Amino acid sequence: MPGEPTKPRGRDAASLQGEASGTLPQAKTSTADDIAAFVARARAMSPHAPGAKGRMIFALDATMSRQPTWDMACALQADMFREAASLGSLDIRLVYYRGFNECRASSWISDSTKLAGLMSKIDCRGGNTQIGKVLTEARREAAASGVRAVVFVGDAMEEKVDELCAKAGELGMLKVPVFMFQEGHDAVAEQAFREIARLTGGAWCRFDPGAAAQLRELLRAAAAYAAGGREALLKLAKTASGAALLIGQMK
Question: What CATH code is carried by the domain that includes residue 71?
Fold first, then answer.
């Protein structure tokens, strides 16, 4: 809970070797030629081609105040796999930040039990937001292996918004939508999250603190898009409010 020290649950992230790939590298400034070459490589991989396996980055703010939502996301992540299973398949890469300058990523995971086990070993720690590193990692993975969508769950933004928007714009060039799911009503976060979503062709949605049903619907909708593309999201939107919210904003 906010204001109280969190208790480590099992090993901390620093000892998750083999399960997480470690601290993400610092971003470097790209030249116009670098960006053009990157876009060409990523598009050549055709992650949206028919029959291609869906890949989604699942990014979460793991700073100290986020512990209740982290636990909730851990409980709900299996719903993403179940939704994707009805459409094909889905690999998820968990990315999270917490503490002082700590931002980590897992390997690609295709099993909800494995992802839940990994998440259960991570405790939230105080620190500032590192959304820029999340977007940089998404860009790197889009070039390396193809990414259909990025999901981010958080409640704050403490970075330079113009720098975040530049990174978001690069993802938009690659047609990798970012779904920004905001907990609570922080106005600064909302402005930044909305702009990141707009620049990537994704969507911004708010959910109330502790509202598991709302977050579940949003995660299911994002997984549907990652596994089956826009057509799958349109189909789900006929019966699910979360999908309708996303499709209503996407370009």
Answer: 3.40.50.410
Flag whether 39 is in a domain.
Answer: no
H helix and E strand count, the chain: 8, 7
Q: What is the dihedral of CA 72, 75, 81, 82, to 10 degrees?
A: -110
Domain region containing 102:
13-20+51-249
Q: pLDDT tier at 203 (50, 70, 90 boundaries)?
A: very high
Find the mean pLDDT for residues 157-167: 98
Position 16 confidence tier, pLDDT thresholds 50, 70, 90: very low
Asked whether the whole model's pTM tops 0.85, one would answer: no
Q: Which two tokens stand for residue 34?
A: 């670098």
How many folded domains does the chain comprise? 1
* Helix (H) or strand (E) run with residue 83 in it: helix 67-85
* pLDDT at residue 55 tops 80: yes
At 166 the three-state DSSP class reads helix
211 occurs within a structural domain: yes
**Does 7 fall in a domain?**
no
Strands 178-183 and 203-207, by their bridges, are parallel
Angstrom distance (rounded) from CA 182 to CA 156: 8
Render pLDDT for 72-120 as a digit per residue (tens, 0 to 9).
999 999 999 999 988 888 999 999 999 999 999 999 999 999 999 999 9
- HSE of 13 in the Cβ direction (CA atoms, 13 Å)? 23
Answer yes or no: is 178 within a domain: yes
* Nearest CA among 123, 131, 67, 77 for reference residue 103: 131
